[in-house]
From TrEMBL:
Source species: Pseudonocardia lutea
Family: Belongs to the acyl-CoA dehydrogenase family.
Domain Acyl-CoA dehydrogenase/oxidase N-terminal, residue spans: 12-123
Protein name according to UniProt: Acyl-CoA dehydrogenase
Keyword list, A-Z: FAD, Flavoprotein, Oxidoreductase
Length: 385
């Protein structure tokens, strides 16, 4: 009756080995700096160096561009395990994915060869620029413009909420090339930090993920070569939406990692903390909280893995499952980190323990790559189509 070869629904040995390797690296090289990175709101250079040295900064890039050619599930496991100890650091592999997926999906072979090898080697990072101050959830109303000038493109406008801006070398940028066509008049481009007319703004002051810089970026007659357009003119918005189907589960993975980290901290704490002559872990009220936290984390993890596996297979109609994974995981991260702070009591409210940082970091996962209200709209439209 029991069949040890039944593997229709389990991680491969390679995925499990990858998890062990990333967890060991995260515990040794990233966790010791996480509190200081948050406190000083500085970029986690130690994490970046460790990830690059181990080849974990962008495992998804195909072998033909110098990458490891790992699947999307492997990418999620890397992000999850780094986020378990430091959410800011997990945005290094996560945003390298977000910025490069449009190139992988839609760019010419020449453009792929121009950009991807430097990310695969760790020499460069890439950011993603879609949002504007007046075009957040309504991304199609963006005002950044790109016009042809001879063989070049010239960009003008401002993008905001750009994760890792200032640290990245490359930027995948959405801009309007034909205002008359609305969403079908948006094109995607790759901008290099040294392109004339490109500038990075000051860092935003944020509630969480303080170690990952978030900035505006400015284009003032920013001139880029004509071959840096991603795909056909006017196809940018379709590429952006297709990208999110692949990358929303990675934000789900980040959220699962944050939640798992908080759960692990809470379990260790309640075993040590004594009240009324015994460890508080012996109290049923505490046990029920832990059980609910763990149940939600595992449910979110499984949904993220299913969503990213379906994306890897190239299944159509990924909208529902990708949004569901991101939404459930991020709501779970917020609930679980809040409960972890509660279990620590007064100590949980201090910076002496990591759960307050995890609670602050969890909040953004409900907001970026589409707020959870937008995720629910996407899911409902999919159901009612």
């Amino acid at each position: 009756m029991l069949n040890a070869d039944f593997d229709a629904y389990r991680l491969s040995e390679e995925h499990e080995a990858l998890r062990d390797a990333v967890r060991a690296l995260a515990e040794k090289e990233i966790a010791p700096h996480a509190a200081e990175v948050d406190e000083q709101a500085r970029f986690p250079h130690e994490a970046r160096d460790a990830l690059v040295k181990a080849g974990f900064q962008a495992v998804h890039i195909p072998e033909e561009y110098g990458g490891q050619g790992a699947d999307e599930l492997a990418s999620c496991i890397v992000i999850e395990e780094v986020a378990r100890v430091c959410a800011s650091s997990s945005l290094i592999p996560a945003v390298n994915g977000l910025g490069s997926v449009p190139i992988l999906l839609s760019a010419s072979e020449d453009l792929k060869k121009q950009v991807l090898p430097s990310i695969a080697s760790g020499e460069a990072m890439i950011s993603y620029a879609l949002s504007e101050r007046e075009a957040g959830s309504d991304a199609a109303s963006m005002r950044t413009r790109a016009r042809r000038d001879g063989d070049d493109w010239v960009l003008n406008g401002t993008k905001c909420w750009i994760t890792n801006a200032g640290e990245s070398t490359w930027y995948t940028v959405m801009a309007v090339t034909d205002p008359e066509k609305k969403a079908n008049g948006i094109s995607a481009f790759v901008v290099h930090k040294d392109d004339p007319g490109f500038e990075v703004g000051p860092k935003e002051r944020k509630l969480g993920i303080a170690g990952s810089p978030t900035r505006e970026i400015y284009f003032t007659d920013c001139r880029i070569p004509g071959d840096r357009i991603i795909g056909a003119e006017g196809s940018g918005f379709k590429t952006a939406l297709a990208t999110l189907d692949h990358t929303r589960p990675t934000i789900g993975a980040q959220a699962v990692g944050i939640a798992q980290g908080a759960l692990d901290q809470a379990i260790a704490y309640v075993k040590e903390r004594k009240q009324f002559g015994k460890a508080i872990a012996d109290f049923q009220g505490i046990q029920f909280m832990l059980a609910d936290m763990a149940m939600k984390v595992e449910a979110a993890r499984q949904l993220v893995y299913v969503a990213t596996s379906r994306a890897e297979r190239g299944e159509k109609n990924l909208g529902f499952i990708s949004s569901a994974a991101k939404c459930l995981a991020s709501d779970t991260a917020m609930q679980v980190t809040t409960d972890a702070v509660q279990l620590f009591g007064g100590y949980g409210f201090t910076k002496d323990f990591p759960v307050e940082r995890m609670m602050r970091d969890a909040k953004i996962t409900q907001i970026y790559e589409g707020t959870n209200q937008v995720q629910r709209m996407v899911m409902a439209r999919s159901l009612l189509r």
